[in-house]
Amino acid sequence: MMIIRQLYQDSHTEIRIATESEAALHLEAIQASVAEIGAWESWCNDRYQLEDSRKYLIDSEQKRHRGVEFNFCLFDRASGQLIGSVGVNRINQEYKFANIGYWIRTGFTGRSLAPLAVHAAARFAFDELALTRLEIVAMEGNHRSCRVAEKAGAVAEGLHRNRLYYRGKPKNAWVYSLIPDDLSA
Asked: Who contacts 41 (Cβ-Cβ below 8 Å, separation ≥6)?
């Protein structure tokens, strides 16, 4: 079993595994961001509660131990606030690819935290998991998420029809890819 606790740290930001004891911080970040994140992610809504954060963090730990998903949280080092999340999921070991997803807490966007998180998670996926391709899938109209993918060095591969489901309906989505060479460019 691979043990990794931290992806990145500088004087302002830390990207690491969040524990069940930090569920209240996780919930606070989600509640502060429902309007922005909920526009693109159906799990992010007014009904999200402390027990949901707790279950998510426990589930993340279990999936990490099984090697099927790796979720990390961003923390503001000055305040201790949880300010976002980045994850490597939908891992396909046979074909060496996975999805990378992210969100940044309202009030902390526009600081290049998401591209930083994507880069750190991608480096982890390529170096530690031996993956050769990562996909970022952003619902059509989610210009901020597309911009993050571009700033992280991902290549747009086109608008895919009915690529995502959002609130029970199929939605078109932009698919971006990252390969190891993209990080060194």
From this structure: 103
Q: Can you give the pLDDT at residue 1?
A: 53
- Closest C-alpha among 146, 133, 137 to residue 183: 133
Q: What is the pLDDT of residues 59-93, one digit of tens each?
A: 999 999 999 999 999 999 999 999 999 999 999 99
d(CA 18, CA 91): 20
Give pLDDT, residue 5.
Answer: 83
**Which own/partner pairs from 2-7 qualify as long-range (CB within 8 Å, at least 24 positions apart)?**
2/67, 2/128, 4/70, 4/124, 4/128, 7/72, 7/86, 7/117, 7/120, 7/121, 7/123, 7/124
Whether this model's pTM surpasses 0.85: yes
CA-closest candidate to residue 141, choices 181, 180, 172: 172
